[in-house]
Amino acid sequence: MTPSKKKVLVTGLQPTAGIHLGNYLGAIRSWVTLQEQTESFFFIADLHALTLPQDPKQLRTKALDCVAMLLACGINPKKSHIFLQSQVYGHADLAWILGCMTPIGQLERMTQFKDKASRRGEDFIGAGLLYYPVLMAADILIYGANLVPVGDDQRQHVELARDLAVRFNGLHGNAFPVPEAFFPPNCARVMSLQNPSTKMSKSDPNQSGTVFLSDDEETVRKKIRAAVTDSGKEIRASADKPGMANLLQILSGLGGRKIAELETIYCGSTYGKFKDAVADAAVEAICPIGKKFAGLKDQESTLLEVVREGRKAAQLRADEILAAVREKIGLVAAGI
Ligand code: TRP
Predict the structure, then answer these.
(1) Residues of the chain below pLDDT 50
(2) Considering only CA atoms, which residue is closest to atom 11 of ligand 1?
């Protein structure tokens, strides 16, 4: 297989229930554009999900739901490789090889690990949680990724992938491009509608702060109308108005107009009218996705076919890179 001239983009999505407006404006929407300019590998990180206890039936459903959601959002299987991480052999093998080159201290210092491990005692903390960033490095390097679009919380993990690429290339000769974390421009950081000092999240106990892409029109409107706002009347994004700043950010993300422009347009308007405008824009962007998702969700054979095709292309690339890695480190190739 001749590698294409395009840059290689790799990113993974955890198969957790409920993709929300924050995921969409902060990530998935930009992937839809990026798939035109790159060779894109989008996968459901079902092996990463195993770092926390999972109900097997639900894990399966969540993974396929995520595939349906990617399709509903406009990721096109004719242009991109869409697949399940666990179906491509080699991620875990490369993670082992890379793990043997990773100082344990670097893993113990990872912010996400420290956060989670600090809850030891309350939650089960498996060794997989420590190893998580190595598996993520393998996910990235096994496709020879150049670009890795991720949220800010994953920056440190991509840094590890870069370190490992440099270390491996230095020790054994070039096997990997050094990947770059990519933060798409105009990417909105969406906060909870109920608590605008925390990020919008699917696991927020207060679900009215999170707009899911599968919410129906009435629910979207209700959640946005109930968003906490700040005292005062001005529609302005400032540090003392986190609720307004968040709604302005959302409207800007949805409609592409700058926040300053929106502040001028809505100057003198009321919170109520402004919220209606945000709700209109959200409904227009999200509800068609929710409807497509509802139509795809139960078409299991279509979803399985998409990941079967995605897997084929991904496996070819992974085999190629892993074979080169194995040879460089002195593992004897299996005679076929
Ligand atoms: N850890 C990422 C997250 O929680 C998901 C992920 C797994 C990923 N492997 C990856 C992202 C490789 C980018 C590249 O969001």
Answers:
(1) 1
(2) 12
199 is an active site residue: yes
Start-end of H helices in the chain: 21-23, 29-37, 46-49, 56-73, 91-99, 104-108, 111-117, 127-141, 155-172, 217-225, 242-255, 259-265, 271-297, 300-329
Comparing CA positions, the residue from 255, 37, 14 lying closest to residue 151 is 14
CB contact at 8 A, 271 and 246: no
Residues 6+ apart with CB under 8 A from 259: 237, 248, 249, 252
Phi and psi torsions of 123, nearest 5°: -110, 160
CA distance 28 to 26: 7
Burial profile 5-30: b = 16 or more Cβ within 10 angstroms, e = fewer:
eebbbbbbbbbbebbbbbbbbbbbbb
| Chain segment 214-231, per-residue pLDDT in tens | 999 999 999 999 999 988
46 lines ligand 1 (CB under 6 A): no
Would you say 258 and 252 are in contact if contact means Cβ atoms under 8 Å apart?
Answer: yes
Calculate the alpha carbon distances from 305 to 59, 197, 204, 310, 328 in Å. 19, 41, 33, 9, 35
Q: Identify the pLDDT of residue 189.
A: 84
User: Is the Cβ atom of 27 under 6 angstroms away from ligand 1?
Assistant: no
Phi, psi torsion values for 235, nearest 5 degrees = -95, 95
What distance in Å separates the CA atoms of residue 136 and residue 81, rounded to the nearest whole number? Answer: 18
Domains and CATH numbers, the chain: 8-188+299-329 (3.40.50.620), 207-294 (1.10.240.10)
pLDDT reported for residue 117:
87
Query: Ligand 1: which of 62, 111, 139 to mutate, most ligand atoms within 8 Å of CB?
Result: 139
Task: Please name the amino acid found at residue 333.
Answer: A
Residue 139 Cβ inside 6 Å of ligand 1? The answer reads yes
Q: What pLDDT sits at residue 336?
A: 63
**202 an active-site residue?**
yes
Task: Give every CB contact of residue 86 below 8 A, 6+ residues apart in sequence.
Answer: 46, 47
Residue pLDDT, tens place only, 231-245: 888 999 998 999 999
